[in-house]
Design goal:
The protein is an alpha/beta fold. It is built from 9 helices and 19 strands. Helix 3 (116-126) packs parallel to helix 5 and helix 5 (160-173) runs parallel beside helix 6.
Length: 414
Amino acid sequence: MQPVIEVENISKQYLIRHEKGLPYQALRDVLVRNAKQILKPGKPKTIESFWALSDVSFQINSGDRVGIIGRNGAGKSTLLKVLSRIVTPTKGRITLRGRIASLLEVGTGFHPELTGRENIFLNGAILGMHKAEIKSKFDEIVAFSEVEKFLDTPVKRYSSGMYVRLAFAVAAHLEPEILIVDEVLAVGDAEFQKKCIGKMKDVSGSGRTILFVSHNLPSLSSLCNKGMVLHKGTVNLPLSPIQDAISHYTKITQHLAQSVISQRTDRQGEGGIRFTAFNLLNAQMQPIDIAVCGQTVIFKLDYCCNKFEAKQIAAAIGIYGLDGQLFTVFANEYAQGNFATAPNSGSMYCTIEKFPLTSGKYALNLIVYCNGIMHDWVQQAAMIEVDDGDFYGTGKTVASTHRSILVAQKWKME
């Protein structure tokens, strides 16, 4: 049997144009500048080449449920857009055998001025279905989406959640041979996500193929039978059993987290204030390698300001399981309010008097805002390991759970 999808050495290049020496300009300034450029050359421009995908190859068979895994910027969404024929590859060849339905972004494939009812028929027509076929599925689509009350309302008035409900219902029920779903399901509530996973399992059971991109590794594990890991636009792990792909991705994130924070270039934000180091301390302010559940743990975040007067500083630490599931967030803004100012360099300390996480390994994301503007965001900035401990003082340890928690915290700055 021939593969449903064959991808041979696909590459996608983007050209990023930088115009030097131009400050912020209003629309009238741009129009005047463009008019002048007809008569004489303008400011010099530089063009940067960026390869979002590079020599990606794989084959997917009918009925496969494939998870595409990778960090932000790995090329996952670009790959799905190429497969959906939204974006043309710069190099390479793709062979698709069957109709494709894609759900890549909120609103994909919907006309905002048309009603929900009209968009169902429009999407069916785009997929090449006859009106009678669409009518036969119409009631199932409406029931699944739970937007019957707003069916004759233009979709431009839908909330993002309603949009996704209807878009997924249309894509999943109109029987495409290939269903492509990006991170968009994260917009819906947890119950709806669970419902979508169940529907995709049903779809694949009838021999249709699914490509699913998500940072939610438990969802990928539940739905997919195969996985592929992308890293910086290339295939870091070819198609493999899904658990092997998840394990491989986890090792990548662990390796990146161990790099020195001050040298990390894969960070976001204005950069006026930046994290430079992370240390885990005990109650005696001594460095420790392993935190113990129920004991005092102190997070020490070193920072520096880059010729920037930091005010109204809000720092936060997001703690994630290695499967990408968020456990909790420690944030001075919520615990006791923003720091009014900060010295040019120093440390922030977050003290958790009874550390609440059970044994295991966890990834930390660090983020800092000044006056409501994000200045630094480092994902997988560090890894910590936690040992069992007597959290309740009863002489018993608590088994590992996967539940988000809220914790009382104390913050200070030196």
